[in-house]
Amino acid sequence: MDGKEYVQKVLSTVQKRNLGEEEFLDAVKEVLTSLVPVFDRRPDFIKAGLLERLTEPERAISFRVPWVDDNGEVQVNRGFRIQFNSAIGPYKGGLRFHPSVNQSIVKFLGFEQIFKNSLTGLPIGGAKGGSDFDPKGKSDNEVMRFCQAFMSELYKYIGSNRDVPAGDIGVGGREIGYLYGYYNKLKGVSEQGTLTGKGLTYGGSLARTEATGYGLVYFTEEMLKDHNLSFKDKKVVVSGSGNVAIYAIEKATELGAKVITCSDSNGYILDENGINLDVVKEIKEVRRGRIKEYLKSVPTAKYVPDFREIWNVKCDIALPCATQGEINEKSAKALVENGVIAVSEGANMPSTLDAINVFLSNKILFGPSKAANAGGVACSAIEMSQNSIRYSWTFEEVNNKIKNIMINIYNNSKNAAKEYGNEGNIVVGANIAGFLKVAEAMMAQGII
Ligand code: GLU
């Protein structure tokens, strides 16, 4: 059996077994198709049933989360933790609290996390979790009660050597604090390495908040440099206004770019003078408000009440930092027609498969999320290291480590693409480079 036949065979089993899980099936298809040249060279991987094992989570936990809201009414949410692969280290990956969360989304994110975490070069396996709980509009007390109810089940399955959750959409410093406090209370321990993204007063790492956004820009800078380009004087469109977007805007601006947009799920802001980050931080980090409020502080800016329209804004570089599937084929074509030179993904899989094809076939420099946004989880692993040695590194030390990791991820992905006959295709390169380390580790450990 050659690589193509093997991949086809596994894909059809995965499709039958995970009916209706579109996001998960798309992610598996994207990764597996790029691995064909690897299997052409490695019949031993085929014999060991590597892909059959890799596409099946080691453990998928789903649980009820009952809690009482401020009106005394009982609410029931659904909680998930998908422990996908632990071949190279303890399961690691964020928790997402958003109404769209379901088993397919958590599985797709967990699957992606395996390769992303491997690409960081650090010893962390892949996992993801979350709930369909919506923190938006909830009081602090409701969020705390929900986090405690969620942890009262999750604590059975996690631990510093077992599975280390962190944040994702809807889970920031506040939620991690409540989750961490309750984990320790239930277990009667003070186990700092069990969650990352912690506050600085109780074991968090400097630069963790900035890590994903900064890392995205370091990766993109390396990709641009490789083609004799830079951020200097470039017009940049950033979507989103959460943690990833905010720090991507900050770093890109520091490197001389002009970032002219940001958005939330309602609409986007266009500020031709360059986004004023102090205003965005005040709205999002302090008031937890909507991005539309930007106009109150900067009346010369424009607000468009449809977030998808953001991809029609003319720019040199696009950094999608909101959520999965936000760039479809039509948006990708609009970006290309308007002369975009690079697209780099801060969110997890923001471009659909069709959109990625549009970018690649038009020779746009494209940084796929599992490579470009790995700075966050890399910093999480650095947080775990600091917790283990009970020491804290300075902002500069952590930031330098992240920068080096992002530069290595770009170069390793680029080299893997070349070695396997797809020069310049970072999508294929990142999949292959991420996969090979996990595959060798699985081979070494036998059929488990
Ligand atoms: N949620 C982030 C991601 O998608 C970070 C995960 C972590 O720090 O464990 O990679």
From TrEMBL:
Q: Where does substrate bind?
A: K92, Q113, K116, G167, S380
Q: Which Pfam families match?
A: ELFV_dehydrog (PF00208), ELFV_dehydrog_N (PF02812)
Please provide one cellular component term from the Gene Ontology annotations of this protein. cytosol
Annotated residues that bind NAD(+) are located at T212, N243
Listed SMART domains? ELFV_dehydrog (SM00839)
Q: Where is this site: Important for catalysis?
A: D168
Q: Which PROSITE patterns match?
A: GLFV_DEHYDROGENASE (PS00074)
Residues of the Glutamate/phenylalanine/leucine/valine/L-tryptophan dehydrogenase C-terminal domain: 205-446
An MF annotation (GO) of this entry: nucleotide binding
The UniProt entry's GO biological process terms, in alphabetical order, are:
glutamate biosynthetic process
User: Which InterPro entries is this protein grouped with?
Assistant: Aminoacid_DH-like_N_sf, Glu/Leu/Phe/Val/Trp_DH, Glu/Leu/Phe/Val/Trp_DH_C, Glu/Leu/Phe/Val/Trp_DH_dimer, Glu/Leu/Phe/Val_DH_AS, Glu_DH, Glu_Leu_Phe_Val_DH, NAD(P)-bd_dom_sf
Q: Which SUPFAM superfamilies match?
A: Aminoacid dehydrogenase-like, N-terminal domain, NAD(P)-binding Rossmann-fold domains
CDD domains in the record: NAD_bind_2_Glu_DH
Q: What keywords are assigned to this protein?
A: NAD, Nucleotide-binding, Oxidoreductase
Q: Catalytic residues? A: K128
Stated family: Belongs to the Glu/Leu/Phe/Val dehydrogenases family.
- Quaternary structure and interacting proteins, as annotated: Homohexamer.
What name does the UniProt record give this protein? Glutamate dehydrogenase
* Lineage of source species: Bacteria, Bacillati, Bacillota, Clostridia, Eubacteriales
